[in-house]
Every structure is written in structure tokens, then in C-alpha cells.
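Newbie here. two chains, one complex. Structure please?
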Amino acid sequence: MSGRVITITSGKGGVGKTTITANLAVALALLGRHVTAIDADIGLRNLDVIMGMESRIIYDIVDVVEGRCHLYQALIRDKRLPGLHLLPASQTHDKTAVNAEDMVAICQELKGDNDFVLIDSPAGIEHGFQNAISGADEIIIVTTPEVSAVRSADRIIGLIEATGKGPGRLIINRLKPAMVRRGDMLDTFDVIEFLAIELLGVAPEDEAIIVAANRGIPLAYEQSTPASRAFHNIARRLLGEEVPFMSIFEQPDSILNRLRRLMHLK
Amino acid sequence: MNIFSRLFGKRKASKAIAKERLRLVLIHDRSGIPPELLNIIKNEIIAIISKHVKVDRDAIEINLSHSQGRTRLVADIPIISPRHDQATEHQETVSHSEV
């Protein structure tokens, strides 16, 4: 087996990298793939909490790099999905504890028995980000439909292109269809027009994400909410399926739609 | 927002403001010419031109623009004509740079 290493990054913090990493990992594992998620945010780990594995960490990525344990001793297996593992970040060391060569070596080893290795990149454009993309075969850039996040995404896309790993694909996260409809939020087309990059998916803002984070059970275990369906669609696109985009997220509002809504036809 | 503005989308939506601000920010970011550098360039251009002609300092506009795959530095420097003692506008493209 030689899996694909995909780094999820954004530049700006708080746009949902960790949530997307966790949910894509779960969605891909539900589709029968072997997946290992790596938390590359050394010193500020969070993927363990989002995946509900925080109480089961024994070793972390710094222990692996510094030779205190073997890579496989540091992997935490998901309780529900046997094909899903997490390699947690260290919470105590600083981000220089792992370098790019370490990351590449870990990715190479994990590729051997995984279909997907998903790396949750730290925010920013420095050491941690460079490490996180060093082992990547593909890169996913996450943004929200906001000026600050799109600007950061543009910067990150430029940096990724400079490393020759570009151009990457885009996920627009936390889109609010109602705000798009009333013209108070950039829509999918606006963001794509600015960033000129392939769209991988659009996920709506969804309160269920917060509930899922409270519980430590990623939303993607169930497909009952809009964001969860969006994550599953993205997972299937990663597998090469042609999944149509959910129209409410990508269509700018037409006069006809506004009329329909006013007349309560919709 | 009344029913008509809602129906025809006439209200100046904040999305339009967001797009315009984002457009300008990205022009600066991508060209590697932040506003503070543009200010330095502007002052130096004013200093050079002022040696020869009197310019209307308050009305000078020097901006980056982007179209057809090229980023341009566009300067609009109104010159105060000594004969009529009033501003007459001259648009000059001071430099072209592909970024």
C-alpha cells in the first residue's frame, strides 16, 4: 500500500482546519479506507480533543522523533473505526522539536499501511507550517468566506506554489447560506474568483460542529447534518468520485429565488 | 430593508464592500508592495516632480491597479499651472511592472 499524504492548512487560525481534518479522517475511514491523522501543531495540540482521544495518549510525535518509542506505539486507534488512527502532537515541547526531515520520514512510514495520511497543519506561515507540508503529496487549503481568511489563504497558496507542491485544492468552510442570500457574505464564486484554485468542497456553518466537539465525536460519524454531508462529499471527491456541489452553498441568489421565498414557495 | 430592496437586491450589501477591500489588499500582497512602501514611492515621486513643476500635493493619487494579468503603478499628479494658477489634470503612468 502506498497512501496519499494530504496536508490541511490555512494560514489564518480558527477557520476549521482541525475540524475538517478530523471529519475527513472519519468519513474516509467510514468508506473503508485506512487513515492516520497527524496533529502537526506541536505545543498546541487539539486534534486529539476533537477526535475524542485525549485521555488515551501515551506517546506523541516528539517521543517518536526523539526515539523514546516506535511510531506504532504512539498511534491511537479509534474506538469505533479500526482503520482510523491518530498521531498526536506534543503539548509540552515547542514547535522546533520536529523538523521537516522527521516529518517526511514519519509520512513515508505511515504511507506503507494507510490509504490516507491527513496532516493538520498549525496556523501561520512559519516553521510548523513548513513542516506540515514537507511530507505532503497534496494540499488542501481551508478558508472561510471572510476578507481576512481569504487574504491569508491567498498568501498560503503563494507559499505552497513556491515549494512546488501547489496549487492545492480549496475548502470553503463555515459558509452561511442565509447571509450569502442577503448579500452579506462572499459566495463560493467570489472566493474562487479571488483565489483562482480548484474547489474541493463547501461546508456550511453548523451548530452541530460545536456539539460534536463538546462530545469528542466528529460529526462525520453520522450524515444527518448539512456540514456532515459536506464532509462526506469532500471525502468522496478525494476518492475521485464526481460529487455535485450542494446548490444552496454555491448558487448566488437569483431574483426568482427571492420572489419564491417572499411568496413562501420555498 | 423593505420588500423592494429585498426583491431587487438594491441595498449596498456588505459583500460588495468586502470584495472591493479584498481586491485592493490582494493587489498589494501579491505585488509585494505594501501601502507603506507605496507611500515612500509617492513621496519620492512628488519630490522629484516638485523640483521642476508645482504640483497639487493634496490631490495626488498613486495607486496599484491590476488588470489583464499585470500590476501597474498608476499615478495621477495634478499640476498647478503657473499661467492660470489652477489645477489641470495630467494622468501619467509612471511605471509599469509585471509582478
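Moderator note: Confidence is low (pLDDT under 50) at residues 91-95 of chain B. The first strand of chain B starts at residue 61 and ends at 67. Thread marked as resolved.
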